[in-house]
Amino acid sequence: MHAAVTRRRTAPVAAQWIAGTAILLLPLASCSIPQTREAQPAPEVPAAFTDAATGPDAPSSGLTSIEDFFRDPVLTRLIADALKNNLELKILAERIEIESSKVLARSGKYMPSVDLALGATLSTPSKYTTEGAVEEQLELAPGVPFSDPLPGFLVATEFAWELDIWGRLRAAEDAARLHMLASAEGRNYIVTRLVAEVAESYYTLLGLDARLQVIDQMIALQQQSLGIAQRKMQAIGGTQLAVQRFEAEVKRNESERLILQQKVVEAENRINTLVGRYPQAIERDSGRFLELDNEALNLGVPSDLLHNRPDIRRAELEIQSAGMELTVARTAFYPRLTLTGGVGYEANSAAYMFQTPESIAANIAGGLVAPLVNTAELQAEFLAANAMQLTAIYEYQRTVIAAFTEVVTRLSMVQKYRRSMQLKTEQMLSLEASVASASQLFQSARVEYSEVLFTQRDLLEAKLLVIETKQEQLAAIVNTYQALGGGNVLAAPAIPK
């Protein structure tokens, strides 16, 4: 006979008895619950950013769309391809699916499980047992004795249901749901980093193009000076020193050009990796590199970061998830009420299998279990859950402070590099004028070749510094945009009901 279904009609368990037993067991179980520890309060978020570029009434640039912020169709197209094809994002999306499946699994825990049971047995009881002795005195039906061996058949539905009287199972589902949403916000943070990395790599590529252009211009200028030195040597029979020095300078810059060309390949492949494709040339317009200056940065107020930055939203969700896990650990000390039962047809002969009501068998049972002795494991799990909750709170506090500091630092970089660009550009213009003057004087033999050589080197260094500073300025702008939460374009995943 199947364990879950018997002939015996058990009396229903009285609701008053269940409630009374729970009330008696609850204080005893509650005495074993350790006391929770509370987190120390975090410093208050400042009312405004220091040295803010705009007033608090201006909306944060973190709310600006990618297209409106970068205003470069080539770059925004690369970003769109990266968001679609980046393999890291695809891996993270599948991990979120795993978390979503855990939510679905936990959501079924507090619902009753119903199974279909089919069974068949064949037994011969001993004549010297109660069961065998009873069968000797009874008939399966009027005039029909029990067969030997005795068959048994069962068709029934069985159920088991843990009543979530303390909200433990619901809290476990909520914890999984919140953790899944936190994972989604973690992916959104990677999205903002991906947008920033693609933009920064793109500007690095434009900067390398600008460096190559400067090197080519300098080689052409030095070759012109080399020609002057050769003509002067032939005309007046002078030394070859000037010719040799200019030739060496040309070779040095030609070598530097090869290194820069290799860096261009590396930068292109870096972008291709982010976009999720094999190496190929990157379409770009490098002619306006030094004129680039993205959307003016508006910081808004520090509290905007709490809503705009996915890493802060993730940390907040992790606090809520840890709180639900602590609830689960607390309710583990309380009594658990489980109902089991079944209903179906059971008979010792197929001929009587579905006779109603004689072949109907049903049972229902309730069990109330509470931990009384040796609760060390439950206490350890509770203390661990409490520590995880405190960890999540302090992680949130750290994330907020780091985000605020990052914005202030990035903004300072933007401002300082913008001013540095102005000064370096003025220096470069002065050196361009000095190179033109030195070349004219060298051609008329009024200055030595070394003056021209050193002036050209200074100009080359100044131009390369201008390009480097521009790259740093653009990188600071991009990273400030990311620090404000810009580039978060993916929606949260669907939540299992």
In short:
This protein has 497 residues and is an alpha+beta fold. The chain is 60% helix and 10% strand. The radius of gyration is 39 Å and the shape is elongated.
Descriptive account of the structure:
With 497 residues, the protein is α+β, with helices and mostly antiparallel strands. It has two domains: 1-31 and 112-163 and 336-369, Outer membrane efflux proteins (OEP) (Single Sheet), CATH 2.20.200; 40-110 and 167-335 and 372-483, Outer membrane efflux proteins (OEP). The protein has helices at 15-30, 66-70, 73-85, 87-107, 130-137, 168-236, 241-275, 303-308, 310-331, 376-443, 449-483; strands at residues 113-123, 139-141, 144-145, 150-163, 336-347, 360-369. It has a four-stranded antiparallel sheet. A two-stranded antiparallel ribbon has the order 2-3. Strand 2 (139-141) and strand 3 form a beta hairpin. The longest helix has 69 residues, at 168-236. The protein is elongated. 33% of the residues are buried.
